[in-house]
Automatic annotation (TrEMBL):
Residue ranges constituting the ABC transporter domain according to the UniProt record: 8-240
Protein name, as recorded: ABC transporter ATP-binding protein
Keyword flag Cell inner membrane: no
Keyword entries, A-Z: ATP-binding, Nucleotide-binding, Transport
SMART domains: AAA
Highest taxon of source: Bacteria
InterPro entries: AAA+_ATPase, ABC_transporter-like_ATP-bd, ABC_transporter-like_CS, DrrA1/2-like_C, P-loop_NTPase
One term of GO molecular function: ATP binding
Lineage: Bacteria, Bacillati, Actinomycetota, Actinomycetes, Kitasatosporales
Length: 315
């Protein structure tokens, strides 16, 4: 990626709302070009506020933000045409059809070519799976359909960067899968995608990179694979003889042994321990071992390890 500037870069970015609420606290964020970057955090952690500063919709109290190499909000006029955004539910005209909403939205964009408008609108509707409902009035759309229409608006032109605030909000599981597939496709075409989510597994499924926010502060950022690897996996033994198994693991010096119904879980022992030996010892001690696995750490494990808190995935 050489010397090309990051897609998004912030230094000390801070927002204190008039009421005194410190929504974003000295954020240093680097979103590499070509990444699918997940911006993760529970509700109220400052994600939307950050996105609104990045898009020049509100002024930061302090710090700087650069988007596609240029300072925001100062360069908004030249930067924003290169960015597709879906923020806080798109503004829709309920009395217009989905298709007419997009035609109107595109007509309001001075950088959009009117000669290709109809074809681009048709293609965008198709990409988000709204072709069949294109003629329906937008007020009859479900939340998920409105979300798709907003995404279609962001896709009317080829963009270098897509900024999507909770893009799967309001969608059913099938709709979520479709949007995730679309995001992967866009990334393969070379678009940098920055998306916020409060769903850890969503980030794990689609993102190459992630940053975790908590109460306005950045907890961690980096490649998803590395973040997950920073948390140690767990040893999981499935057995009806949980008491005996737990005792033996503890005697072996294995930490954090926990019994849960017919499972005993524990911290994975040091790298140089032969797991098969532990399994054999359990069996020798008469423990009926029905399952013995070293589970890979998830992003959630990393989050818990980093913050010492659970992550409210139900949000
Ligand atoms: N316009 C505003 N005026 C005052 N406080 C605000 C305003 N907008 C947001 N806040 C507060 O700033 C904090 C961060 O909110 P923000 O919406 O950025 O979080 P979020 O992570 O995007 O959460 P959500 O997923 O719920 O949108 C919250 O405590 C919120 O109540």
């Amino acid at each position: 990626m050489g010397k090309e500037p990051a897609a998004i870069e912030t230094h000390g970015l801070t927002k204190r709302y008039r009421g005194g609420q410190l929504a974003v606290n000295r954020l240093d964020l680097t979103v590499p070009r070509g990444s699918v970057f997940g911006f993760l955090g529970p509700n109220g952690s400052g994600k939307t506020t950050t996105i609104r500063m990045l898009m020049g919709l509100i002024e930061p109290t302090d710090g700087t933000a650069r988007v596609l190499g240029s300072p925001m909000p100062r360069a908004a006029r030249t930067v924003l045409p290169r960015v597709g955004a879906l923020i806080e539910g798109p503004a829709l005209y309920g009395f217009l059809s989905g298709r007419d909403n997009l035609l109107r939205y595109d007509a309001a964009d001075p950088t959009a070519d009117p000669r290709t408008r109809t074809a681009r609108v048709t293609a965008a509707l198709d990409r988000v799976g709204l072709t069949a409902a294109a003629g329906k009035k937008a007020r009859a759309y479900s939340l998920g359909m409105k979300q798709r229409l907003g995404l279609a608006a962001a896709l009317l032109q080829r963009r270098e960067l897509l900024v999507l605030d909770e893009p799967t909000n309001g969608l059913d599981p099938q709709g979520m899968r479709e949007i995730r597939a679309l995001i992967r496709e866009l990334a393969e075409d070379g678009t940098t995608v920055f998306l916020s989510s409060h769903l850890l597994d969503e980030i794990e499924q689609v993102c190459s990179h992630a940053a975790v926010m908590n109460q306005g502060r950045l907890v961690v950022q980096g490649e998803v694979a590395e973040l997950a690897a920073s948390a140690r996996g767990r040893l999981v033994v499935t057995t009806p003889d949980t008491g005996a198994a737990a005792r033996l693991l503890k005697e072996r010096g294995i930490a954090d042994v926990t019994v849960d119904e017919n499972r005993v879980t524990a911290e994975l022992p040091p790298e140089d321990t032969e797991l098969a030996d532990i399994n054999a010892e359990l069996v020798r001690a008469g423990v009926r071992v029905r399952g013995f696995v070293a589970e890979r750490a998830s992003l959630e494990d990393a989050f818990v390890a980093l913050t010492g808190e659970g992550f409210d995935v139900a949000g």
